[in-house]
Amino acid sequence: MLLTGNELLPKLGVFKKLIDVLPEFICLKNEDGEWLEANEFALQVCGVERNSYKGVRAEELSCFLTPDTIRRCHETDQKAWKTGRPIKIQEEVLQKDGSTLILELIKQATFDDEGNPLYLFVTGRDITQHKEKEEELSVALELLESVLEGTTDAILIVDTKENPIKVNQSFEKLFGWEEEDLLSGRVDSHVIIPSEYKPESKSIMSLLAEGSTVPSFETQRVCKEGTKIDVSISFSAIRNMQGQVIGFCLIYRDITPQKKAERALRESEAKYRVIAEHSKDLIAVADPSGKLLYCSPSHEGLLGLRNGLDELNEVIYSRIHPDDWEFLRATFAKARSRKKPFTFEFRLKINSGDWVVMETNAVPVLNEWDEIESYVTIARDITATKETEELIRKSEKLSVLGELAAGVAHEIRNPLTSLIGFAQLLKESDEEMKDKYIGIMLTELKRINDIVGELMLVAKPQAVHFENSSLKDMLESVVRLLDTQAIIKNVQIQLNTFGDIPPVYCVENQLKQLFINLLKNSIESMDKGGLIRLTLIKAKGNVMVEIEDQGSGIPKDRIEKLGEPFYTTKEKGTGLGLMVCYKIVKEHFGQIHFESEEGKGTKVQVKLPIYPLSVV
C-alpha cells in the first residue's frame, strides 16, 4: 500500500542522513515542481541553501541554475509525469568557480492506486570526467583517422590472430587490395607476403605477441598484380588499458626506387672499379688535405710500391719535383675557391729514377653543403707526347722559317730591283734627276730596314716575365704616347672604363706593344680625322678591350687573312705588325676579333683572361 504525502515525508527525513553520504544526485519533487527533499550532493551541485529549499520551486530558489536550465527541467518533469516512464537526460550546471558540471539524470514519476500523482524522484550522477574522456577519445580517434589517411606510408592494423581490422588509403594504393576485400575475409592479409618470406613474417609476429620489440627492417612484399616491391616495415604492438596485447600495427614504406638506385650504384661502382683496377692511368681519390683515400694498382707499377695506401701516402709527395711545388699549391688554392674541374701538369720521379711529365685531370667532389669533400684525379705519363710535340714545334718553326724566308726574299727583292734600276740610271742622269733618284732609293732602303726590323721582333726569342699589371694604367700610358700622332691627323682618342677592373696576369711590355700596334693602325686608317673609342670592361673572368675607329674599314674577304706574315691592307705595310699582335694575344691565352665595314670603320675586340690559364 502506497504512503500518502503526509505519511511519506517524515519517513524520508529518517533516510536523509543515509542519502547525504551518497556521491550521487538525489532529489524529490511534487507535481507542482516544489522541492520536498534533496541530498547534500544535489544541494551543492545546484548551489541551493540547506534550510531554504523545501516546498520551493526551482525558479524561486537562490541557486546556480540558469533560466534555460530551469525551463528544460520543467519540460522534462512534465514529460515524466505525462508518460509515467523513466526519463533520462543530461544537463550542464554552471558552478561557482566558473566550471561546468555535467549531470546524467533519471526522472521517475510515482502515482497512487487511483493513478493520482505522488512524487517525482530525480536521481543522477556526475559524468563530467566521463564526457571529457569521451571528447578526448573522439579527438584522438579523429586525429588517428587523419594520420592514417594523411600519411603516405601504408598502414595495416590486425588483431592478435592477424585478422585485418583497418587499412588506410596508402595501403590500398600501394598493394592494390581494398579495405573491404581484407575486412570481409574474402582475402587473407598474408596475400601480400611472398611465399619465401612467410616463415620470416610468422617469426616476427610471434615475437611481437610475446611482447618483444622488433626493429624495422627491409624486405619484399607483393602487390595485387603480382609485382614484387621493396619495402621497409615498422612493427608496434597495440595494448589495452591492462597492458595486454590486443593487436598489431604494421607500417610499410615503399623503398623500391632507393633499392634500384642502390643496386645501380653498386653495379656502377663495380664497373668503375674494374676500369680503375685495370687502367694504366693513375687514378686516385684524395681528401682536401691531400691524404690519399684510394689509388689504382697502376701506382704500384710506375712508382715501384707494393704496400698499398700507407706506403704511397708516405712517399708520393717526395716524388714530386721540388720546382713544381709552388705551382701545385697555387693550382689547388684556386681550385678550392672555384670548385670546378681543372687540369695541370707536374713532374714525377718514377721507379727507374727518371722524371716524367704527368698530365692530371682533377674533379672536386662536393657534399650537400657545397663543400669540397674530396678530389678525384686521373693522371697519365705524357713525357713521350711532350717530346713529340717538341719535335712538331721544331718542324713547324722550320716550316715557318721557310715561309718567312720566301716572304722576306719576295718583299726585299722588289725594293732591291728598284735600287738596281735607279743605280744604273744614276750613271746617265743629270744632277737634278740624281737627287730625285737618290730620294727614291733612300725610301726603298728604309723599307728594307723596316721589314728586317719587324722580322727580328717576330723571330728573336725574348725573355718574358708574367706579373699582375693594371690594364687601365697601361692603356692610359699608350694613349699618352700616341696622342701627338693622333692630334697631327686630327684624331681624338677617348678612353672609357666600366666597373672595377682587376689586374691582369701578363707581360706588360708585350701588351703595350699590342695596343700601340692596334691604335696606330686605327690612326693611320683615318685620313679625314675622327674619334677612336677605347673601351675597357670586365666580363666573366676576362677583361675586354674594344678599339673602335671611324677609318676606311677592311673588306670582308680580307679579314680572315689578317695576321698572316706580309699580308696587309696598307699601301706601304708589311703585315708583320698584326702578326706580332696575334702572337702576343696567343701567348696570353686570349682572343682577338675584327669587325669592319668599308667606309664606316673597324672594331677590334681583345679578350684577356684575368687568371693565367696555364695554372688553373
Automatic annotation (TrEMBL):
Q: Which EC number(s) does the record attach to this protein?
A: 2.7.13.3
Q: Where is the Histidine kinase domain?
A: 407-612
All copies of domain PAC, residue ranges: 87-139, 215-267, 342-394
This protein's record includes keyword Nucleotide-binding: yes
One Pfam family from the record: HisKA
Q: Which UniProt keywords apply?
A: ATP-binding, Kinase, Nucleotide-binding, Phosphoprotein, Transferase, Two-component regulatory system
Record-annotated PAS domain positions: 140-211, 268-339
Which top EC class is named for this enzyme in its record?
transferase
Catalytic activity reads: ATP + protein L-histidine = ADP + protein N-phospho-L-histidine
Give me any GO biological process, just one: regulation of DNA-templated transcription
Checking SMART domains in the record gives: HATPase_c (SM00387), HisKA (SM00388), PAC (SM00086), PAS (SM00091)
Q: What is a single molecular function from GO for this protein?
A: ATP binding
Against PANTHER family, the record matches this protein to: PAC DOMAIN-CONTAINING PROTEIN, PHYTOCHROME-LIKE PROTEIN CPH1
Name the chain's protein.
histidine kinase
